[in-house]
Write a structure and sequence with these properties.
This protein has about 325 residues and is an alpha+beta fold. The chain has a domain at about 205-315. The protein is about 65% helix and about 10% strand. It is built from five helices and eight strands; from the N terminus they run H-H-E-H-E-E-E-E-H-E-H-E-E. A hairpin with a 2-residue loop joins strand 2 and strand 3 (about 235-245). The chain is rod-shaped and about 230 Å long. The termini are far apart.
């Protein structure tokens, strides 16, 4: 604070008035500045408010536009949902209907199949019953026929064995008689006798041997195995008898060495199948091993019955 010099009261009043005037001037100036500032703020506020209103208006328009778009999208979604629900309900209904139809069809098929199976089973049972009856009848008839055949076979076999035994005895006696005659012819005589022509015979017959097989089964087995060949000769020609599934005869050609068989040595089955001729003769072609065994036996013995077994071995009796 400035120190003032001591003045008179009048000076002091004038100084106070000067101070008041200065204060009033400063106050008026301040008020003018304040009013001027207030007016500028009011104008600026009005301009700013107008710009803000315009921006708000534009934003509101944008928001309203977006709201409209959202409403349209929502409406479309609701409408699409409605159509989808309707389509879903229709599809469910169709599927249910199809499922019901399929179940009905399956039920009908099952009933039809069961009926068909039942009918088929009934027919099969009837057929099986008829077949069983027919089979039993056939078995009975076959059993009767088999018994009759067995009986006839036994009777024939007994007769055949008896006849064969008799023929073998006769052949043995004949062979012994021939040996005796041969010895008598071989004895020295005072007068030469004229030569007697004889029919050609096999080697076994020339030396007083009789060829046969151990039994008919052995003969048939060797013939089926094709180890031996059964030959039949007659005025019609020379034939080979073959026994595979059936018994047949085929023409025989070429050279061969045959051993003669007596008629009773040949199994009855071949004599029954092959047509009989009064001038037919039976013979057999033997393999090298059996033929060698025969020749060995004939060298060791003067006479006898040469017997061939089912395995091809040779023995003499």
């Amino acid at each position: 604070m400035l120190e003032r010099k001591q003045q008179s009261p009048q000076d002091e009043v004038e100084a106070l008035n000067a101070d008041v005037m200065r204060f009033m001037a400063i106050l008026g100036l301040c008020l003018m500045l304040i009013f001027a500032a207030m007016e500028g703020v009011r104008v600026a506020s009005q301009e700013h408010m107008s710009d803000l209103d315009e921006v708000m208006s534009q934003q509101m328009q944008i928001i309203e536009h977006e709201n409209e778009q959202i409403k349209k999208s929502l409406f479309n979604i609701i409408e699409e949902k409605f159509f989808l629900n309707s389509a879903l309900k229709a599809t469910k209904s169709q599927l249910q209907q199809q499922e019901d139809n399929q179940l009905q069809i399956l039920d009908k098929l099952n009933k039809t199949q069961e009926q068909s199976l039942s009918n088929l089973k009934s027919d099969m049972e009837q057929k099986i019953s008829h077949l069983r009856q027919s089979l039993n009848t056939l078995k009975q008839e076959r059993h009767i026929e088999k018994n009759e055949t067995d009986q006839n076979k036994q009777v024939l076999l007994k007769k055949y064995n008896k006849a064969k035994s008799q023929v073998n005895q006769l052949n043995l006696q004949l062979a012994q008689e021939k040996i005796k005659q041969k010895k008598e012819v071989a004895a020295p005589q005072s007068k030469p006798s004229k030569a007697i022509k004889k029919k050609p015979v096999s080697k076994t017959q020339k030396k007083g041997f009789l060829l046969r097989f151990s039994n008919d089964d052995a003969f048939i087995q060797l013939l089926k195995q094709q180890r031996i060949k059964l030959i039949i000769t007659s005025s019609e020609g020379h034939y080979q008898v073959k026994h595979n599934n059936t018994i047949t005869k085929v023409p025989l050609q070429g050279k061969y060495e045959m051993y003669t068989l007596s008629n009773n040595t040949v199994p009855l089955i071949y004599k029954m199948v092959i047509s009989s001729n009064s001038d037919k003769k039976w013979g057999v072609i033997l393999p090298p091993d059996i033929r060698a065994s025969l020749q060995n036996m004939m060298r060791q013995h003067q006479s006898g019955i040469l017997e061939i077994s089912a395995i091809g071995s040779v023995s003499i009796k």
